[in-house]
Every structure is written in C-alpha cells, then in structure tokens.
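Q: Hi! First time asking for a complex rather than a single chain. Here are the components, and I think there are two in total. Is that enough to go on?
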Amino acid sequence: MNKKNLKHYVVMLFILAYLFIPLLATFLYSISTKWQNTILPHGVTIKWYGLLFKDFRFLEALGRSFAATSLSLIISLLIMIPTVFIVIVYFPKLEKIMNILVMLPFAMPGVVSAVGLLKLYSTDPFPIAGTIWILVGAYFIVILPFMYQGIKNSLKTINVQDLMEAAQLLNATKAQAFVYIILPNMIKGVMVSTLLAFSILFGEFVLANILAGGNYETVQVYLFNKKNESGHFTSAIVITYFAFILILSGFIIKINKLINKAES
Amino acid sequence: MIKKQDKVLMYVGLIPFILIILAFELLPLFSILDSSFKSANGTYTFHQYSAVLQNAFYLQGIKNSMYISFYSSIIAILVSFLGAYSITRLSSRVREKVIMLSNMTSNFAGVPLAFAFMIILGYNGLFTILFKQLDIELLQSFNLYSGIGLIVVYIYFQTPLGILLLYPSFDGIKEEWKEAASMLGATKLSFWRYIGLPVLLPSILGTFSLLFANAMGAYATAYALTAGNYNLLTIRIGALISGDIFLNPNMASALAIILALILMTLTIFNEMMLKLRKGQYDE
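A: Yes, that's all I need. Here is the structure of the assembled complex.
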C-alpha cells in the first residue's frame, strides 16, 4: 500500500464508519441493561432478545411478513417467467410496451399506489383491503422492475432463441424445451433477483401499514407500533431484523459468485 | 415460424400477467387520475389542483420535500462520488469487501433506520449525551426531528445507493487517458476538469435524478421519525388517505399525481442519461 492509496483507504474508512455507526450503536443499545447519561452502558444483557422472542405478537408478525413476501415471490415467478419468455422469444415487438409497464412502478412509490389501491379494494366487489391478498397484488408491482430485468437478463445470457431452435431440431416440443432446457439454465440468474426482491419486500412498510395495518401486522408494522416501548427493546427488534437481512445478502453474494465463476 | 395454434396458446400464456397488471398497476393509476379530477358530488373539476396551488400547507409540503431531497441528494452524490472513486483505487480484494459492506447497509432504511437514529441522535440519544458532556455547542443544537435531522438520515440511505449506481461508471475512465493527458502536460486537476468529469457527467446527473426521486418518494423514514408531524408531500398524501381526521381521497389523488409526474420526469431524465452513456461507449 503506497502513500497515494492511503488517501483512498481513509476516504472509504470514513464512509463505512458513517454507515456502520448507527448499526453498531443500535446493537450495543440492544444488549445493554441501562444506558443513560453515560458514555458506556451499565451492563450487558440478552434479556431484550429474550423478551422479544417470547412475544407471540412478534413471532406472528414475522410469520405474516414471511407469508406475504413468499407468496408474492411465488406468484411473481409463476407469472413473470412464462410472460418474459413468451415476449422475448415470440413477441419481441411487445418489449417496448413491457418496458413502459415495468418502469411505471418507479413513478408510483408506495404512498401513491396506496391511494388508488385503497379506493379500488376497500369496497365491493373486491373488498380485499386489510388482507394478505391486497399486499400480494401490490407487492407484485413493487418487485416487477427487478423480476423483469433479472429474468430478461438470464434469458438473454443463455441465448434462449438458439437453445429453443436446437431443442426443436432434436424433436422436443416447445413445452419440453422450456421445462427441461430453459428453466434449469436460467434458475441461477433468477435466484439473485428473487433474493433481492425478498429483501425489498421484507423491509416494506408503507403499503403494509396503509393497506393492511393492524388487520395484518407485518414485522415492519409491528416495529412501528412498538415505538413507545423501551429503546432497548426496539433496538433488539431492529438488530434481529437486520441480522436476518444480512444472512440473506450473504446468500445473494454467494450465488452471484457462483454465477460469475460459471460464466468465466 | 410460429404456427397459428401456437400463437393463440402464447397469447393465452400472457393473460395472467395482463390481469394482474390491470388490477394492481393500471387500474389504480387510472383511479387516482380519475378521482384527482372529481369533486365531492361526483362531477369533474380542477378544484383539487387549484386548491393545491392556493393552499400554503400543501405548497409547504411540496417545498419541504424538494428541499430535503435536493440537499440530501447533493451531499450523497458528493460523498458517493469520492467513495466510488476511492473504491476503484483499492486492491481488488479489498474493493469487493468494501462494496459488499456498502451494499449491506443499503438494506437499512425506513422504520428500522429511523429508530436507530433516534437511539443515537434523539433527545436522549447516545451521541446527544456525548455532545452535551463534551460541551460541543454546534452539535448540541442539532435537532433530529427537524428538516436538518431528516437530511442527515436521508443522506444515510442515499449514500450506499449512490455508490452502487456510480461505481460502475468509473470503468469508463481509462488509465491510458490519464497517462496521455499527463504526457501532453495536463495536471491532475485539469484532467478531471476537461476529461474525467465530462465523461462521467451523464452518470452523475442520472444518479442524482434517481437519488432525488428516491428521496421524494420516501415516506417510512420521515413518518417513523417525526410521527407524521414534519410536512412532506408523501406525509400529506398518507395523512389524507389513512389519517385519523380530515380524510380526503380526492385531494390525496391530486397530490399523488403531482408526485408521480415529478418522479416520471426524473426517471425519464435518467433513461436519457443512460442512453447518452451507452452512446459514449459504442463509439
């Protein structure tokens, strides 16, 4: 490491310190007994985590977040993979329309789409506000840009047109070619966008709070509703949530590396 | 060529997608647009839009949103520019780790982030007490629950995003250019002034517009931090559809359309900048 590089290490160190201090402080706060008017905490304890994991409401909220997120992802994969496949291979002209539909969510953040969704789905004929179903629908749109891009990229990397032609030369039907050739080859690429979508949805608050709220309390809404509890307790929630996301990002990085290795 | 029978089958395969897009993307958008022009008794009117322009409270919300988005994005883009450049100068092993750490924190946003900042910088926050004990006057007057406080928190979630978006564009700056420039007598400063920055400009402007859009649309952080008391455009929309009092979905729709138009402009601007960048590489 020469002198020139040192400067860059210092810059990065400062940025990373800024990014990690809030996390570190929250972690310390979550394992301290009492921490008031002193620089360092009084003592160390895990009782806040104990309290948290004994709180049935927290475990239920965790379960709901899992259910809403996984269901949205499954439906998204089931619909998006065939759709993108059909568009790219058979109707490439439709890609322009797809691009517009896929960009639209960027102009409609949670609080905007909530206005329309609430109006459409809080009364008959589809009174699904306050249930998991309105979240699943709304979440499908939230992750649409990432899923579309991920699926499209992995179809293009495996040269889907050539593969389909080759399979059909060997007398495979279109369905056979899709199930036995295309799907297994694209799975890794799609996995990364799926995990990314998972971490986005798991951290989603606005839609969960406005569309479902107390009727279907997710982890984020639970955390918000605990705002008046002890700061140590809420810190324990924050850290538990973050640890979970961390493990997930670990998976993303691992899979990404595997893909890059396979390609090079 | 595709057989006719196959073609029908392919169209059928697109039906689930079309249905879900209609139900959860296009119809909601249409419904917002429709009700933004509807009066209380169901006739069409421009009343909501003219009310926004005359209502000091809504205008303040829009102004505050712009102000916080602008300052947080400017600072975040400066920090991430320095950061992204520094990353490219690190050894490749360290580089990978640093990017990983930065990406990791990009998941830390919204309600959890607001809570973490309350713990360190709130009224009885760890750092607030530290500043008091060290008697640093400037920092003691800092109020997390104000506009400045929001800017500090927004910078936090904007910076990793900025690094993530800007970092790849530094690949466009070739080492040979620097050598060539210095051989022709250019100083480091003039290299960046006349070559580096102009080449990176589309990426910087594009990233800035995405950061600005990201901040304009943010709701959870401010809502959790100030309990909805700080006047932002998104907070106003949320209060008009899910608050305890003064519900007015038609007004919420008009504000939502205004926000959507702003975000659409920023997204299209970024697309243009991306195309400009691609054009540079193709030559």
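A: The radius of gyration of chain A is 23 Å. Let me know if you'd like any chain examined more closely.
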